[in-house]
Design brief:
Chain lengths: 486, 494
């Protein structure tokens, strides 16, 4: 059962098999965790995916799991599985910087529901992962703690904002990770790094413990190497949470079982708006090949129209920044985190703390968001944005009357070079062009690897499904995955 | 400029030329055990920062979840204030920076409040008047900034977040109030309704009821409102009248001296008896309200509303009307007997088991309340229980005690801290119920007062009371009043 070719002993096993192996004692959680910690030790300096590594905690937890397995105590389905968590998610006793200087050294006194559920299922948290500051960015270049490098090409960005979460899985520095997606922050880095990243339906996974960027858009979701592994993790973290008033009470289906259902007869929509100008030719062809493979497996491919797509990016940047401007007000230097020293008055303290504590992109978005909510501008921007958001959601509702899922490219290009877009925020914002619409509509989606460019850069296909139809999305994604390996 | 100089310069004549327009914004703390959006206790007076959690501290990632009990209280309050409760209301973020506001925004309601279009009826110069209520909305309280009382208070401020997240309702009146007296009456009724429904303890010292006032004046007969000032911090019933009077006089004086009232926020300083400018309109906050994305819209279905309203008690106004009818007591008695729901309950329970409810009302008013006040006691601390009052009332009703006698018993009871029944049993007044003895005394009084006898027999029957009084005095209050009455009339008519 041991495969050590990549230095870890988990490769070749699904997370489900890995958990079972730890429960049965065939694999020792301690060895497993150690092998990952060693890899982190060896490779993280180059990739910069981890902001903090909880070696001691992880080893102790793994030893406890092995002891429990020996005693025959009941263990969860992810027993011993080494995971890591984006640094915008709170874990008691571990730093949660959100990639920001303003939260340097901040240790939350409580644990996010999604992480608590992972731990209860036996997963071992290795550490916290780098990301764009407060999840604002598409390249991970906005982290106060340095850029994350794409394991597929170290001069390239891993995508963002969950760049560390995608890179850690790609470089096998964790068996699975959690990231967050507000406008594409899971799907786009998954695409850039060549891993699977899931955007669950809004309300499917509790946001309790997720440091908010835009509350009506923020979602926690898993990264993994395969669709099945991602489905496994989602099954563990999904479900109603009394601590999140926006979390859904719908029962959680068996996503792993859903993955394995045949796709024959599945109706797959292809929106012309997502294959238009601005799309890299190689990406276009690769995604079209993935669609062909779905057709070959018995799916019915249908053109659909999402006519208002072009309004999505501006709408997103109005609504997301508005919410962000309020969500980030709490970082004022009064109770926790960074406080500017040597200031005389309260307003100076606020101004200096926030000026020095926040990075440029965060300040840009706070300014934008404050502006769109201001007296006299609210109707023209925020209210209008809300209206367009409903129209965009209706586009999807109409399309899903005809098809079960929609397939598009995840991003217009493969991973770009570090520094390539940092001086041009608008071109950076357009990296989200295919992902923000689903964010605004609240529907679910996934990015699944579907090939590589001529330069060897990963390319992802995005599959979108109606609210709470993650199972169908997993099915289609696994078919693309299988179509590739065949 | 002091308060006195304003009063003297703004003459009565000048004041009479203007009509004040007042609207009140009242914050009422709801009496829930736990906070509006988390499970922390709302208890007052605990050690600073001991009733806090990630949510009410506004820690990154923590989320609010609405307290159902707070909604039930708010719906009860809304209905008691004759408001229409909306099926769907929406929470909103009100953004402002302040150290005791840990999220940087307050969760409130804005364009879709819980309830609207209510009213409270108050007495006014021209009879009962309805003061409109624009809206009642739910929101959370802030913490407290402590600027004093620490060794390093000169250079530092401290923050106590225990109160942070306590549920409030804000009740906004229409600008229907025209005098400080009406404002006082409005607040009194409002407080009474909140107490009756049990949604708040309305304790002003602890900040459970807070009031801001919007005040403007306009020349009488003018339709258009004058420029208003918002007076903050009018947190006592004692000061509401003086704060409003001051502000009205101030504005009238500004206008009379050819000036213009500036739209601004002013703070009432009770110690100095005047209002101070806090900030002008230009410095006013832009709160940038927008819907709170962490909370779904609040849905109050008809079924839930019905369930909530089963807890609705009889409200003070209705109760007073019924008591006047049922117990044949005066409006004024009904008013004071319903000062609190508990008191009214106690009274009614007593009245129901007495021979004459009206007699109970009289005794409570004439004998009990004054003595309690003088002794500085609450009703619960009274040596004379309601059973004692009922006994007194029954004895009085049966004519077995004269007013002089029951007054004496009440005196002794309060003096010795004993119940009415105990004193009565021990010192049961000698009552003269022997017809022959009484007749003899009556004869003596008749003989001594021929003039009054003549008046009586000339048709002035009320003079009988004079003879009753004389005999009562002669008997040192011990004559059986009922028998005495009967015998006096018999003798005089004879």
């Amino acid at each position: 059962m041991r495969t050590e070719a990549n230095g870890t002993i988990s490769v070749g096993m699904t997370l489900q098999e890995l958990g079972q192996s730890v429960i049965s004692g065939r694999v020792k959680a301690a060895e497993l965790v150690n092998s990952y910690l060693q890899r982190i030790e060896a490779r993280n300096a180059k990739i910069n995916a981890y902001l903090s590594v909880a070696s001691e905690d992880a080893r102790r937890t793994a030893e406890d799991l092995d002891a429990a397995a020996r005693r025959g105590d009941p263990l969860g389905s992810l027993a011993g599985v080494p995971v890591a968590i984006k640094d915008v998610i709170a874990i008691e006793g571990m730093t949660a910087t959100a990639g920001s200087r303003i939260l340097e050294g901040y240790k939350p006194p409580y644990t996010a529901t999604a992480v608590r559920r992972l731990k209860e299922a036996g997963a071992v948290v290795l550490g916290k992962l780098n990301c764009d500051e407060f999840a604002m960015g598409s390249s991970n270049e906005n982290s106060a703690y340095g850029v994350v490098r794409n394991p597929a090409a170290l001069d390239r960005v891993p995508g963002g904002s969950s760049g560390g979460s995608a890179a850690a899985v790609a470089a096998e520095l964790a068996a699975a990770t959690l990231g967050t997606d507000t406008g594409g922050s899971i799907r786009q880095p998954a695409s850039f790094c060549g891993v699977v990243g899931v955007l669950p339906t809004y309300g499917r996974v509790s946001r309790y413990g997720l440091i908010a960027f835009a509350s009506s858009l923020d979602r926690i979701g898993p990264f993994a190497r395969t669709v099945e592994d991602a489905a496994m993790v989602l099954g563990v973290i999904a479900g109603h949470d009394p601590l999140d008033a926006t979390s859904s009470r719908r029962p959680v289906p068996d996503y792993v079982a859903e993955c394995h259902r045949p796709v024959e007869g599945l109706r797959v929509g292809v929106p012309a708006e997502y294959f238009a100008e601005g799309l890299d030719q190689e990406v276009k062809l690769t995604v079209q090949r993935a669609i062909d493979s779905l057709r070959a497996q018995g799916c019915v491919i249908t053109p659909v129209s999402l006519p208002h797509t072009r309004y999505a990016v501006p709408t997103y940047y109005v609504l997301a920044t508005a919410e962000a401007s309020a969500n980030l007000e709490r970082f004022d230097g009064v109770r926790y985190g960074y406080r500017a020293p040597e200031v005389k008055t309260l307003s100076d303290m606020y101004r200096e703390t926030r000026d020095r504590g926040f990075g440029r992109e965060v300040k840009r978005r706070i300014l934008l968001g404050t502006y769109v909510l201001s007296a006299g501008y609210y109707d023209a921007y925020y209210r209008k944005g809300q209206q367009v958001r409903r129209v965009l959601a209706e586009d999807f509702l109409k399309a899903f009357e005809k098809v079960d899922v929609i397939v598009t490219p995840t991003a217009p290009t493969p991973a770009f070079r570090i520094g390539e877009k940092t001086d041009d925020p608008v071109s950076m914002y357009l990296a989200d062009i295919y992902t923000v619409t689903a964010s605004l509509a609240g529907i679910c989606g996934i990015s699944v690897p579907c090939g590589v460019s001529s330069e060897g850069l990963p390319i992802g296909a995005q599959i979108l499904g109606p609210h709470f139809c993650e199972g169908t999305v997993f099915r289609a994604a696994r078919a693309i995955e299988q179509g590739q390996t065949v | 400029m002091t308060a006195t100089s304003v009063s003297t310069s703004a003459t009565t004549a000048a004041l009479a030329k203007y009509e004040p327009v007042i609207g009140l914004e009242v914050h009422v703390q709801l009496l829930t055990t736990t906070k509006a959006f988390c499970g922390c206790l709302t208890r007052f007076g605990s050690a600073p920062n001991t009733q806090i959690c990630p949510t009410c501290l506004g820690l990154p990632g923590a989320l609010p979840v609405l307290n159902k009990r707070a909604v039930e209280f708010a719906v009860l309050a809304s209905t008691a204030l004759n408001c229409e409760v909306r099926t769907r209301s929406v929470f909103a973020r009100k953004n402002y920076f302040y150290p005791d506001s840990p999220k940087g925004y307050q969760i409130s309601q804005y364009d879709q409040p819980l309830a609207e279009h209510g009213w409270i009826e108050v007495p006014s110069e021209n009879g009962p008047k309805k003061i409109g209520i624009t809206r009642l909305h739910m929101e959370e309280d802030a913490g407290k900034s402590l600027h004093e009382g620490f060794p390093d208070s000169a250079t530092k401020s401290y923050v106590d977040l225990n109160r942070c997240g306590t549920p409030l309702v804000e009740i906004v009146s229409e600008p229907d109030i025209r005098t400080p007296d009406e404002a006082y009456e409005y607040l009194t009724r409002l407080k009474e309704i909140m107490l009756y429904t049990g949604v708040s303890d309305c304790n002003m010292e602890e900040g459970s009821l807070r009031c801001d006032a919007n005040v403007s004046v306009r020349p009488r007969g003018q339709e258009k409102f004058g420029t208003k000032a918002e007076v903050k911090n009018v947190n006592s019933f004692r000061f509401i009248r003086s704060a409003l009077e001051y502000e009205i006089e101030r504005q009238v004086e500004v206008l009379e001296s050819g000036g213009r009232v500036v739209q601004e926020t002013r703070s009432w300083n009770a110690a100095e008896g005047r209002t101070f400018s806090m900030r002008s309109k230009e410095e006013a906050h832009d709160y940038r309200y927008f819907p709170e994305p962490d909370l779904p819209p609040l849905m109050v279905s008809d079924a839930w509303k019905r369930e909530i309203l089963t807890a609705m008690p009889e409200l003070p106004e209705a109760r007073r009307a019924r008591m006047v009818r049922e117990y044949e007591i005066s409006e004024q008695d009904a008013q004071s007997l319903t000062a609190t729901r508990e008191f009214a309950d106690t009274f009614e329970a007593a009245a129901k088991r007495a021979k004459s409810p009206r007699r109970v009302a009289n005794l409570v008013q004439s004998e009990l309340m004054g003595r309690l006040r003088a002794a500085g006691l609450e009703l619960e601390q009274s040596p004379v229980t309601m059973d004692g009052v009922v006994l007194a009332a029954d004895l009085a009703e049966e004519g077995k005690l004269s007013s002089k006698q029951w007054k004496q018993i009440f005196d002794v009871a309060f003096e010795k801290g004993e119940d009415f029944g105990v004193v009565y049993e021990r010192e049961k007044p000698q009552q003269i119920s022997d017809t022959a003895t009484l007749e003899k005394m009556i004869d003596e009084v008749i003989a001594a007062n021929p003039k009054q006898v003549e008046q009586y027999r000339g048709g002035k029957k009320t003079v009988a009371a004079f003879f009753v009084g004389q005999v009562m005095r002669a008997s040192k209050g011990q004559a059986n009043p009922a028998l005495l009455n009967e015998l006096v009339v018999k003798k005089l008519d004879a």
